[in-house]
Design brief:
The protein has about 180 residues and is mostly helical. Helices cover about 65% and strands about 0% of the residues.
Length: about 180
């Protein structure tokens, strides 16, 4: 048995077919076929991410609201054995704010879930709620900044919330393409 040297072969000597590949009619069709996205098809990537951010922010707002309500209801215990006579009035404003935070957070969470579920009118409702939440967090940022002592961490957190809810509102309220 003799081994004769064989001529070197090309890496890819010829294509499997002589026909040109058929291109997709548009980039969207090509992306839809080729890329496997976890985003619902009726939303798109950016709007799905914004909707998820609204849901997460809504849950965080509900948790924060429950904490504020608990603080408002137990404010008298913080004074120890000798509370001031008007201690009950100290908890009214935090109680109202906590209830508002729970309601807004619940509405944002439910609205975001409705958008993912493709409920009719949910995009508009959740977009308006996101714009409202952005406006409220912007007002909160200003109030935190002008009241001494300024809380830098809370100001930055409120600024980030303003941006997230504002961008989500823009994406949810834009017309369908």
């Amino acid at each position: 048995m003799s081994l004769e040297p064989q001529p070197p072969s090309a890496y890819n000597p010829s294509p499997m077919t002589s026909q040109r590949p058929i291109r997709a009619a548009s980039v969207a069709v090509s992306r839809r076929r080729g890329a496997h996205s976890l985003a619902p098809e009726h939303l798109g990537e950016a709007t799905a991410a914004a909707t998820l951010a609204v849901i997460v922010g809504g849950v965080a707002l509900v948790i924060t609201g429950v904490g504020v309500i608990a603080l408002a209801l137990t404010i008298g215990a913080r004074f120890g054995g000798d509370p001031p006579p008007d201690v009950a009035s100290y908890g009214v404003l935090p109680l109202i704010g906590g209830i508002g935070a729970v309601l807004l957070g619940g509405a944002l969470t439910g609205g975001g879930l409705a958008v993912i579920g493709d409920v009719r009118g949910a995009r508009m409702f959740t977009g308006i709620l996101s714009a409202f939440a952005a406006a409220m967090s912007a007002v909160g940022t200003v109030l935190v900044s002008i009241n001494p002592p300024a809380d830098t961490v809370l100001g930055i957190a409120l600024t980030v919330a303003t941006m997230v809810y504002g961008i989500a509102a823009l994406l949810l309220l834009r017309p369908h393409r």
